[in-house]
Amino acid sequence: MVERMTLILDLFEHPHTRRNLEEVTRRTRLPRSTAHRILDQLVRLRWLDHTTSGYRLGKRALGLGGREIGQNALRSAAAPVLHDLAIRTKLVVHLAVLSGTEVYYLDKVGGRSAVDVPSRVGGRAPAHCTALGKAMLAWLPPERIDTEYADAVRRTPRSIGDLGILHQELDRIRRRRGLAFERGECFAHVSCIGIALRGQEGPAAAISVVGDVQTPMERVAPLLMQAAHAVSNEFFAGPALPRPDLAAPQQTWSSEAMTRFLTVGDGGDWL
């Protein structure tokens, strides 16, 4: 029995892996009834969770270092994409996850210009003050925003400190195809554009591009969206996400064209 349980658990390479009964039966070569019985036992013991999208690692498995393993896997999957994005934009690139009401930075890429951005790998910042954080908050239930950000503190004079204004901002992000902007909200001299990587159960992480407060971040939106699409397809199990219909990276986007692109649509389901 222990060998069979181990055989099944080994199918879940990282916390975002989803497997259905048919996949488990095919890949383990166990009888369907046997696989189903063991999966039920693993769910009861909290080694696995059973959701509408299939089975995934449960709280007990994640409590044994699964969260850190998942973050390392995400960072590894994203690393080449982040480096390419930093080279093509000549700006600083971040990868972060949501941790409570803060963002937790998993990676930071940007060469010499990175020293001008006061963030660090392993550091944290208030989620509602960053493009990374707002990009993820936009896909959370409104009730959670009400609970966790009712007394949001301003980090700079431009930070959002009002719950109603925060909800308006998150609605704009959803209507803007998931793209979040901030200028001087976390650090007075920094501007940023971010987008979330969305898994089956909500935002799993976010990528951002950072420059000084005068940088026209709208112009790097197509490259950022392509990068997020690439990381999502590499990291998340299951079928590839639809590719956004973007112009070629080398094409120059006019301010008018970018404005139309960011304001058309209802938020999309790309990422």
UniProtKB/TrEMBL annotation:
Q: Which Pfam family name is an example for this entry?
A: HTH_IclR
Record keywords, A-Z: DNA-binding, Transcription, Transcription regulation
User: Gene3D superfamilies from the entry?
Assistant: 3.30.450.40, Winged helix-like DNA-binding domain superfamily/Winged helix DNA-binding domain
| UniProt keyword annotation of Repressor present | no
Q: Where is the HTH iclR-type domain?
A: 1-59
Q: Which residues form the IclR-ED domain?
A: 60-237
Q: GO molecular function of the protein, one example? A: DNA binding
Give the matching SUPFAM superfamilies.
GAF domain-like (SSF55781), Winged helix' DNA-binding domain (SSF46785)
Answer whether the UniProt record assigns the keyword Transcription regulation to this protein: yes
Example GO biological process term? Answer: negative regulation of DNA-templated transcription
Note the PANTHER family from the entry: HELIX-TURN-HELIX TRANSCRIPTIONAL REGULATOR, ICLR FAMILY, HTH-TYPE TRANSCRIPTIONAL REGULATOR RV1719
Designated name of the protein: IclR family transcriptional regulator
